[in-house]
Amino acid sequence: MMGADVIQEPFAVINCDDFYGRDSFQVMGKFLSALPEDSKNVYSMVGFRIGNTLSDSGTVSRGLCGTDANNLLTSVVERTKIQRMDGEVKYIDDNGEWTATPETTPVSMNFWGFTPDYFAYSCDFFKSFLSDPKNMENLKSEFFIPLMVDKLIQDGVATCEVLDTTSKWFGVTYPEDRQSVVDKIQALVDAGEYPAKLF
Questions:
Q1: Region of residue 51 (left: phi > 0; alpha: psi -120 to 50; beta: else)
Q2: Residue 44's beta-bridge partner residues?
Q3: Tally of domains within the chain
Q4: Residue-number span of the structural domain to which 119 is assigned
Q5: pLDDT value of residue 74
C-alpha cells in the first residue's frame, strides 16, 4: 500500500528474504506484460511445484493451491509438516495421517501479480483489519495478502491465475539450511545464470 501513489501499472509482489529463481520472474513478467491496458481485477500468482520448495533439514508449511480448468485459483489450504518420505511428498492431513501429493502440486510462496485496482481493495480491507479488536490486541497479527486475494475471489470480484514455474524456491527455514542455500546460489553462479558479484 505504500506504493499505491506511484504504481500505475501491473506489478509484482515478492518476499524480500526468499529466492524465487529466474524462470518464476520470467513467467510473471510474461503474464503482466501481456495484460491489455487498463486491465482490472486480473491477478496472478506463481505456483511453485511443491517438490521444488522443500527443505533437507526438516518439515515445512505450504499453502497448497486448488485450481479450476482454466488454472484460476480456487483455494489455498495451509498444510504443515510437509516433507519427502519414501520418495513421495507427504503432509499431515486433517485426520492426522500422512497423505501423498504429486511433486507438481502448486503451492503459494507469496509471489503475486496485481493490477493497480488491488490497492483500493487492500486499503479498505486493511481498515477492517485494524478495526478488529483481536488484531489490535495481538501485536503479532499480520495482514496477509492471501486473505485479501481469497476474499476477492470468493466475492467474484477478481480472478487469480496460477502460473507454473520450473524454478526452485529456497530460503533459510532452518539454521542448517544456510550452507545448502550458499551452495545452491554458487551453483547458479558457476552455471552462468548469475554473475559472481551479485551486489
A1: alpha
A2: 113, 161
A3: 1
A4: 11-48+64-75+105-179
A5: 95
Percent of the chain with pLDDT over 70: 100
Mean pLDDT of 138-164: 90
Identify whether the C-beta of residue 21 lies closer than 8 Å to the C-beta of residue 46.
no
AA letter at 68 = D
Per-residue pLDDT band at 129 (split at 50, 70, 90): confident
Distance CA 175, CA 39 (A): 43
Residue 19 located in a structural domain = yes
Coil/strand/helix, residue 147: helix
Domain at 128, CATH number: 3.90.550.10
Between the CA of residue 30 and those of 6, 12, 14, 20, what are the distances in Å? 22, 12, 16, 16
Asked whether 72 and 162 are in contact (CB, 8 A), the reply is yes
Contacts of 131 (CB under 8 A, 6+ apart): none
Write out pLDDT tens, residues 27-59. Answer: 999 999 999 999 999 999 999 999 999 988 888
